[in-house]
Amino acid sequence: MYPVFMLMFFANMSVFCESLFKKTTDRIRLGYPNPTIRKFIVVLSVFLKTMSLQMGGYRSKVLKNNKEMIKKETIKKKTMKKFLFATVITALMFACGGGGSDAPNPGPDPDPDPGPTSNNAPTTPVLSAPENNLLCIDNNLEFSWSASTDADEDAIKYTIEVSLNAEFTQITHSVNNLTTTSRTILLERDKAYYWRVKANDSKNASSDFSSVFQLYTEGFGEENHLPFAPLLLKPEMNGTVQGTSASLMWGATDVDGDSLTFDIYLDTNPSPTTLVVSDHPSKDYVASSLTAATTYYWKVVAKDGKGGITIGQVWSLTTN
After folding, report:
1. Cα 144 to the chain's mean position, in Å?
2. Which residue has the higher pLDDT, 217 or 87?
3. What is the pTM assigned to this prediction?
4. Which of 210, 214, 219, 277 suits a disulfide with 190, CB 3.0-4.6 Å?
5. Residue 239: how many CA atoms within 13 Å on its side-chain side?
6. pLDDT mean across residues, the chain
7. Residue 106 falls in which region: left (phi positive, over 0), alpha (psi -120 to 50) or beta
8. How far apart are CA 99 and CA 275, in angstroms?
9. Residue 55 half-sphere exposure toward CB, CA atoms < 13 A
């Protein structure tokens, strides 16, 4: 496309030459006495007429070229608009899910694939023997429990754990993949033991552990046996209590049937050393005057009155 200033130049030159031509022809009509001047004016008029025509031609050519360029640009823009319009229409058709097809929507699958089903864990075993709180004269013991069931009818195997404490942080025996509901285990004499069982199916789902049973193995020539370690009942381990007092409860037994008393230690030390009550006769105690928003640690020492002493685990609680 030619620049605008070229159009203006050709137009002005054409008009200028045309104007000069008219003035020159007027001079010729008026007449000049000098033949040389007359001849010069005739030549000049012819030249100006030629220039006028030439400039006019250039102007027409430029205008024509510009019109063609404008026409081409207009056609190009119209073509692009049509293309964009067609693209948008096509996208909308596919977005509506029809894709131009008149086939009816098949609707939901009348018999859908249910996919993988969830696996049910076996039921929790129930302990049978040795009985809870039993003094065992023989230290080669047969442990037994009731069979678990599985809703999916999966094969079941059992795990038994025997520990020196009720928290099972000192496990002495752990046997897996038992296909029967009993197991004979040789224990050391003159020790308190705790045991539990859980069931596992063939798809790796496990039941909860059973309740915990405790027993004591008889020592040679022993007349008195140590109490079992106290068991936490309330509050739960790392539990939170409201206010600045806490109700503490625990369980404890003795295979000899001796009456037990308890020493209670409680403070903010992870290994509490502050004795808050001694020779306490019951298995509960209310700790008062605690500081709010503070973590406390406590433990119970069981005594049978015959020199037998068992120190319990350390438990913790936090005041709100």
Report:
1. 42
2. 217
3. 0.55
4. 219
5. 13
6. 83
7. alpha
8. 82
9. 20
Contacts of 74 (CB under 8 A, 6+ apart): none
Instruction: State residue 240 phi and psi, 5-degree precision.
Output: -115, 135
Per residue in 55-74, pLDDT (tens digit) is 556 556 656 666 676 777 77
DSSP readout, 259-272? Answer: --EEEEEEESSSS-
Q: Burial, 27: exposed, middle or buried (Cβ in 10 Å; 0-12, 13-18, 19+)?
A: middle
Close Cβ partners of 273 (under 8 Å, ≥ 6 residues apart):
265, 267
Neighbours of 105 (CB within 10 A): 7
**What is residue 44's DSSP assignment?**
H
CA angle, 274 as apex, 273 and 275 as ends, to 5°? 110
Strands 213-217 and 140-145: unpaired
Q: How far is CA 263 from the centre of its chain?
A: 47
CA distances (Å), origin 53, targets 9, 35, 46, 49: 14, 27, 11, 6
DSSP letter for 134, please.
E
Instruction: Report residue 69 as tokens.
Output: 């360029």
What are the helix and strand counts (H, E) for the chain?
A: 2, 17
Q: Measured between alpha carbons, how far is 160 from 199 in angstroms, rounded to an integer? A: 9
pLDDT, position 2: 47
Kindly compute the dihedral angle of the four CA atoms of residues 127, 128, 134, 136, in this order, to the nearest 10 degrees. Answer: -110
Please report which confidence band the pLDDT of residue 296 belongs to, taking 50, 70 and 90 as the band edges: very high
109 burial class (0-12, 13-18, 19+ CB within 10 angstroms)?
exposed
| Mean pLDDT of all residues in 118-139 | 93
Write out the two tokens for 6.
């070229």
List phi, psi (to 5°) of 53: -65, -40
